[in-house]
Description:
2 copies of one chain form a homodimer. By secondary structure, chain A is mostly helical.
Amino acid sequence: MCTCLSSVQAGILNAVTSSRPDLAAMIGPLGRTLFALEAPILDAHGLAMWAYAVLLNLDDEPVRTQTALAEAIGADKTRIIKILDDLTARGLIERRPDPTDRRARLLSLTAEGRRLRDATQAAIQAAEEELLSRLTPAERETFLQALQKLL
Amino acid sequence: MCTCLSSVQAGILNAVTSSRPDLAAMIGPLGRTLFALEAPILDAHGLAMWAYAVLLNLDDEPVRTQTALAEAIGADKTRIIKILDDLTARGLIERRPDPTDRRARLLSLTAEGRRLRDATQAAIQAAEEELLSRLTPAERETFLQALQKLL
DNA sequence: TATTGTTATACTCTATAACTATA
DNA sequence: TATAGTTATAGAGTATAACAATA
C-alpha cells in the first residue's frame, strides 16, 4: 500500500522533553498505523492506495478534470494516469471526453466501481472502528470533530 | 522535508458516501499539512526531517543502539547512517563504541545538539499551536489525549 | 552462528520536462 | 498563447543483500 504517507511524514516521534509531543510526532506514527491496518484490506479488494483514493473522491458528480482529481487527493496529475487507465480497464470508472471541451475527460464511477468502493470502505472503517474503540464515545466524537476542524 | 510520509499514506481523502470520512482520509492530509508547516522551520534550523526525528528521540538516556533508534523513528537501520554521520560531524550527537559490546554504538546528544533540538521544537510547537487554536481548550485537550490513546 | 554497523545495489515512487490535441 | 492529458526521463527515497567486526 502506500508506503509514503507514511514514510515521509511519519518519522517524527515522541519528545520526552516538552510538555506535549509534537503534533506531527503523533500524527505521523498514527498514519503509519492506519496504513498498516488498511494495506491488507485494500489488497484483499484488489485496490492500491491511490486507486482507492480515486474511487473515494469520485461520487455522483459526473464531472471533474483529471488534474482537479489529482489535486484533490494530493497527487500529481501525471501520477494518476496509469491508475485511471487501470481502473477504466477494470470497468470501475468511466472516462469520456467532455463535449464542451474535448481536451478534458469527465470521470465517473461505474456501478461496479461504486460497489467495490463501498465494500472496501466498509471493511476499512470497520477496522478503524476497532482502533477507535479505545476511546470513550465522548472522546471519539470530539476527536473526529477536532480532526475535521483541523483540516 | 519529508516528501514521503506524506506522500504515500497521504492520498486518501474525504468520502462523501459514509457517515464519517475514513480516519486515514483525515490523518493523511493533516499529516501533509503539518509537514508543509514544519518544512520551512526545519530548513531554517538546518535540519532534515529524519535528522530532527533522531534528535527528538535522543534524550538523557546515553544508551541505545542504532538499530533500536532507527526502529523507534520508523526508519530502516541503513537509512539513518548517513544522517548520524552528518549529525556527528556537526557536533550535534556523539557516537562512541559501547565498552561492554564493541559492536554497538552508544548515541547521545551533545549540549549543542540539545540546544538546537529544543529551539527547533519550540518553533515547531509554536506553529502547531496556531493550528490547534482552531479548537476550544476542551477540544484541544481531548484531541491530544485521544491521539496518545490511539498510539 | 547471530548481531551491529556499514556499504553497495536495485527498486519504487515522485517530479520535471517535453509532446499532442484542443481551445 | 494557454490548458488537459499523456509520455519519457531523471531524480530522490527506500529497501535488499552482502560484507566486516564482534559476540
